[in-house]
Amino acid sequence: MLLRIRNLINRFERFWWSKSAYKFYLKELTQLKSLKKSSKLYDTLIFSKTIKPVVLDSPSKKRIAVIAPHPDDEIIGPGGTLLSSTKKSCTVDIIYLTSGGRKDFVVRENEAKILCDKIGWNSHFLRNEEGKRNWNLENLLKIIYKLKPQILMIPFILDDNKDHQFFNKLLFHNKAKLKKAFLMKTEIWAYQVYTAVFPNVVVDITDFKETKSELIKIYESQMNKRDWANFSIGLNAWTSRWLNNGSKSSWAESFYVVNLKEYINLLNKYY
Q1: Looking at 7-138, which runs of residues are DSSP E strands?
Q2: How far is the C-alpha of 212 from the C-alpha of 191, rounded, in Å?
Q3: Distance between CA atoms of 148 and 164, rounded to whole angstroms?
């Protein structure tokens, strides 16, 4: 029992030290004042020798809302963690900002519904059009206020996709509305889709790797363009570098985890 308590204390100490170190790292990073340059610096993992992410279990018994700019981001990005959390009595709501291009709405929403129904996730469609810059966050905020999520999963600010970055910009410009709500205490789990996010939290998804791969394939309209299952699982294999599993084949997902107030402070550096 004493050993277990000591390990728990060490884990928390490492977690809080990591948060402090990341604040220093992000302060240096944001001096670049450019999303593109910052993203390139992230890709080098230049600070990986001194700052290590904390390996955490997936959330348990939490209300989780996931912002997916496109149908498939929810499974390609944090899918393994969400599958694990679903097994641990978490409620999961996926909020799709767009349904792809206007001509793709029916197909992509149908694929998303099949996936969500299969797992037991709730789906919400805002029906914005990808690539456009006339999105309105009012309906999104209404859904979030109603759900009162304890964890809000969003694409990271430096993820290499213009829609993902545009969502972060809208988030920043609606910060006044967010500050008036309970949301400022909500925990942000910023996830990875394209860019090699430098994480402060990593979740081992080895037990859910096969299921995640098969679920990605539900998005047949997107699999015709690229093998996203191979892409995502390959990225998860690369991310397993942060796990201490020796020679065992492993897969992991990475996140930048802070409360919403701290995340807004990061957005402020760019916007």
Answers
A1: 54-55, 63-68, 91-98, 122-128
A2: 15
A3: 22
Interatomic CA distance for residues 45 and 39, integer angstroms: 10
How confident is the model over 215-225, as pLDDT tens digits?
Answer: 999 999 999 99
pLDDT at 188: 94
Q: What is the pLDDT of residue 53?
A: 85
Q: Give the C-alpha distances (Å, rounded to integers) separating 76 from 138, 161, 206.
A: 26, 14, 15
Tokens encoding 262: 């701290």
- What is the CATH number for 146? 3.40.50.10320
Number of separate domains in the chain: 1
Instruction: Find the domain containing 110 and state its range.
Output: 2-270
Alpha-carbon span 227 to 211, nearest angstrom: 16
Q: How confident is the model at residue 214, as a pLDDT?
A: 98
Tokens found for residue 88 = 């641990």
Return the C-alpha torsion angle 203, 208, 213, 218, nearest 10. Answer: -110
Q: Name residues of the chain where pLDDT drops below 70.
A: 1-51, 179-182, 196
Output the pTM of the full model: 0.86
Among residues 267, 225, 250, the alpha carbon closest in space to that of 72 is found at 225
